[in-house]
Amino acid sequence: MIAAIVPILKLARHCDYFDYEVPDIIAHDLCLGQLVAIKFRNKKIQGIVWDIRNEVAQNEQNLKCIDAIIRKTPYLSEYQKTAIEWFARYYGVSLARATYLFIPVQPRKNRNSSKPSSITIPHIVVGERSDISVPNGRSTIVAADWQGYLSIITNICRDSKEQKKQVLILTPSIHDAVFIHAFLAPLFPNDTLCITSETNASSLANAYDLAAEEMCHLIISTRHALMWNIPSLEHIIVLDAESKDYKQYDQNPRFSTRAVVEYISQSRSISHTLLTFSPSCEIMHESLKTSVPIRSIQSHTPLAFIKTVNLKDHFRSGNTAFISDVLQNAISQSLSESKGVFLFLNRKGYAGLAQCSVCSHVFACEQCKLPMRFSVRTHSLRCTACEHTEQLPPHCPHCKSHDIRFSGVGIEKVANTLRLLFPNVSVVEMSMEKKTSKEEDSNIEKDIQTHIIIGTSHAFQQHWEWFDRIGCIGIILGDPLQSLIDFRSLEYQWQTLMRLRALATTFGITTVVQSFDPTSLFIQTLYRADWKEFCDWQEAMRKRFSWPPYSRLVKIIARHHTALIPDASEMLMKKMRTTIAPMKHLITLFRTSSMRSLQRPYFLIRINRETGSIDPLPRELETFFNEISDDWLIDIDPVTF
Fold first, then answer.
1. Over 345-361, what HEC string results?
2. E strand or H helix at 441, and its extent?
3. pLDDT per residue as tens digits for the range 38-49
4. 392-423: per-residue pLDDT in tens?
5. DSSP assignment, residue 14?
6. Is residue 206 within 8 Å of 115, Cβ to Cβ?
7. Of 74, 400, 408, 412, most Cβ neighbours within 10 A?
8. How far apart are CA 346 and CA 364, in angstroms?
9. Do 380 and 390 touch, CB atoms closer than 8 A?
10. Residue 383: phi, psi to the nearest 5?
């Protein structure tokens, strides 16, 4: 007897399964989906029995034998196998890599179970909402605040538990998963699981067994439990469905969580709900195609006081700081009421441009040719594209002048202004470059009413549980930065501000939005929380230039060493042109600009027709992708450029 075993390893694109001889002693107990121990490349690993053939192994085949059966009951169900096969075929990866991505192995040594990180739950009143019914089938719900958001989750979980069914809740980040678990655990004691990348191997394996045995009804996870064996799964909830964090960035494969959820819900005929504060154009377009209207949950709390400030008028008055009089008064009032202040600016460092005042030389990255951002804290220049960092030279390299000016604004410049305006208040900077330690976070949380926090989106997304003690939110610069590379850049910036607005609405926080053009459609739709008008505006622009959702994109990215890139790129380009030539009416091929191609070149393929998120690609493209070596990463429906 011969068994086809899929090793739980990250293997190349063409390595699906391997044949192993079945010893007579275990032949009667062996069945499909079992977890077995095998030898692979002189190592002892675990694998899944994918197929069994009643054949006699020939001597010349020189097959290895299966060492043992780890689990007599199937570790992988039939629908899991079907889903993993679809995933591997759709994203162009091996069965081994797809299985490794979703199925936990049994650890050799049992370790102490890891518990989710502790988190402070903000005071959010979640009462019975008669206007919120449990959705069935495919649904998209837009909530105005966290009360409505959590009410929907609670209602779905309560309804499913009454019917003794299971619910899978997916979150875009570990922090969100920990918060949702901390919120639901008291409501459903001993009936919740929290699975993140911080969960150790023993806890992961135990959680997998609990879900498969229906010992737990609420599974909260960040993509890890997406293809677990959850027999009585009735509902999948995708929180912050518009978040680009649901798309894997550096891993192979780069898969879309929302697309996998769509496939699972269709194949298993279960309900799934996309929960969001601001739907993306793709979500809204899909809703119109399927004739499933987007439900909007209005807030039952008074709307926060939102005021816009024209920065042009502010600078005309002779003030050069980015803190207007209106914002300064709001900060003073919040501090006098013993409440904290959060100021948002999605620009790191001190200034976006360092330039010689004499010869106008711009300090740019040698590789990307882009202006580098200056940081006072480290006295260095940093490229935002390739992350190259260098010290600021003492003089201009062209004219040797020491007169260097710094244009633009960053959180460090605003923090310096705040320290001058409020000398007796602690000003804290928060960004990906300047992360605070757990001890610093604890100190800020205990005494937040004496702090002004100035930070990027990283700050409020990782610490939004503090906002029940915040009295003022200030958006330093609400105007968007239009990107020539990424057609979704405006949408991403608007969604970030909408998340911040949802926090202001939830806790009734006074909000000041500073802008050079407060009458722009971007600012006005934010002020009114009018996501329909914003999506219509963005969708009209994309339709004009035939960008998603009116087309589909596939990104092919170099993964191998930089020295091999030029020749490999030319070879791949020739092969793609030959493949795409018969389909010129359907497919357009783009080559990257020189800005980032020096570091990691990529090619962009646009399919010029409307398709669904899980519709198969043209057969010629699928064949071509199967022929590409693993030196190239295939990114279907990319979210970044």
1. CCCCCCECEEEECCCCC
2. helix 438-446
3. 999 888 999 999
4. 888 888 888 888 888 888 898 999 999 999 99
5. T
6. no
7. 412
8. 21
9. yes
10. -85, 130
